[in-house]
Amino acid sequence: QVQLVESGGGLVQAGGSLRLSCAASGRTISSYAMGWFRQAPGKEREFVATISWSGGNIRYADSVKGRFTISRDNAKNTVYLQMNSLKPEDTAVYYCNLNPPIRSFWGQGTQVTVSS
After folding, report:
1. How do the pLDDT tens digits run along the chain, 116 residues long?
2. In degrees to the nearest 10, what's the CA dihedral of 89, 92, 98, 104?
3. Which residues lie closer than 8 Å to 103 by C-beta, 6 or more apart?
4. Under a CB-based contact definition with an 8 Å cutoff, are residues 9 and 110 in contact?
């Protein structure tokens, strides 16, 4: 079992930046592809970005490409999401999980609110 704890969210103005962290405990995630996902009010959870176990393969949703950067530190069992040039439509609760996600691994997420 893996426990995933997201942090780093907050309220930011449009054009601002935030760095999210996802700390894993219970077992190492170094062998797994990881992903960031988000859920806006009234919408289904959607894919944001994914990174392979080595960091060599990365993919983004079209809506965040060029603005968000996913990275990982396997020694710290942590995955990051650097978010720049934030837009109001980026407002959501952000979650990390394995990719593909494991249902029982969803954490509480971290709220990101972007004001216009």
Report:
1. 899 999 999 999 999 999 999 999 999 999 999 999 999 999 999 999 999 999 999 999 999 999 999 999 999 999 999 999 999 999 999 999 999 999 999 999 999 999 99
2. -150
3. none
4. yes
- Written as six digits, the tokens of 102 are 């494991």
The CB density around residue 115, as the number of other CB atoms within 10 Å, is: 11
Q: Which residue in 83, 69, 107, 90 sits closest to 17, CA to CA?
A: 83
pLDDT in tens, 34-56: 999 999 999 999 999 999 999 99
SS3 11: strand
Query: Tokens 């439509």 belong to which residue?
Result: 89
Closest CA to 55 of 67, 69, 71: 71
The answer to whether 75 and 9 are in contact (CB under 8 A) is no
Cα separation, 90 vs 87, in Å, equals: 5
